[in-house]
Automatic annotation (TrEMBL):
Superkingdom, natural source: Eukaryota
Keyword flag Ribosomal protein: yes
Keyword terms: Ribonucleoprotein, Ribosomal protein, RNA-binding, rRNA-binding
Coiled-coil spans in chain: none
Gene Ontology CC annotation, any one: mitochondrial large ribosomal subunit
Claim: Ribosomal protein is one of the keywords in the record: yes
Single GO molecular function: large ribosomal subunit rRNA binding
Xref: PROSITE patterns: RIBOSOMAL_L14
InterPro entries recorded: Ribosomal_uL14 (IPR000218), Ribosomal_uL14_bac-type (IPR005745), Ribosomal_uL14_CS (IPR019972), Ribosomal_uL14_sf (IPR036853)
Record-stated family: Belongs to the universal ribosomal protein uL14 family.
Name by which UniProt lists this protein: 50S ribosomal protein L14
GO biological process: translation
C-alpha cells in the first residue's frame, strides 16, 4: 500500500503534492530508499553458520576466525553456543597461530535474542572467545561487553574475565 502510494506520487500523479514541485517527490523516494535499506539490514542478520567470519575478543593471539561448524548438530549458533573455527588472522607471537582449528564460544551476535523479561539483546558485530577442549578460555582477558546469558550455558569463567556484562 505504501509502496504504491510512493510510486504514484513520485511520478507526479498525486494531486496532494502537485503544487509543491519535485522536492516532495525526491523526499519520498529518499524515504523509500532508506526504508528499503533498513529492511535489508534487518533481514541480513542471521545466526552464526558455516563460513561466517567472526572477530576474536580475547588476548589469545587470534584476530579473526571463520566458523567451520556449529556444535550440537544445529544449522547455526547463537549467543553462548560453541563453534569450531579456523583462525584466519593472528598476531605473530600469540598462543594461537594462523590456520589452527580451534573451538570458540559466541559472545556477541548481530541477530537479536529475546530475554525472559521481554527485552531483546543484539550487538553490532559477531564475536567469539577461543576456548580449549575443557571449555576454559585460552586468553586471560575478554574485551567488550558479554551477555549474561553465558551463565546459563555454563561459561562462568568467560563472565569472570569480561570487563562489561550486558
Amino acid at each position: 500500500m505504501a509502496a504504491s502510494f510512493v510510486s504514484k506520487c513520485s511520478r507526479g500523479d498525486c494531486s496532494l503534492f502537485r503544487g509543491l514541485g519535485t522536492n516532495v517527490s525526491n523526499l519520498l523516494s529518499t524515504a523509500t530508499r532508506m526504508t528499503w535499506s533498513n529492511f535489508l539490514s534487518q533481514h541480513q542478520r542471521t545466526f552464526i553458520q558455516m563460513r561466517t567470519v567472526l572477530k576474536v575478543v580475547d588476548n589469545s593471539g587470534a584476530k579473526k576466525v571463520m566458523c567451520i561448524q556449529p556444535l550440537k548438530g544445529r544449522k547455526g549458533a547463537r549467543l553462548g553456543d560453541t563453534i569450531i573455527a579456523s583462525v584466519k588472522e593472528a598476531a605473530p607471537n600469540g598462543k594461537v597461530k594462523k590456520g589452527a582449528v580451534v573451538r570458540g564460544v559466541v559472545v556477541r551476535a548481530a541477530m537479536q535474542r529475546g530475554r525472559c523479561d521481554g527485552s531483546e539483546v543484539k550487538f553490532d558485530d559477531n564475536a567469539v572467545v577461543i576456548i580449549d577442549k575443557q571449555g576454559q578460555p585460552v586468553g586471560s582477558r575478554v574485551f567488550g561487553p558479554v551477555p549474561h546469558e553465558l551463565r546459563k550455558k555454563k561459561h562462568v569463567k568467560i563472565l569472570a574475565l569480561a570487563e562489561h556484562i550486558a
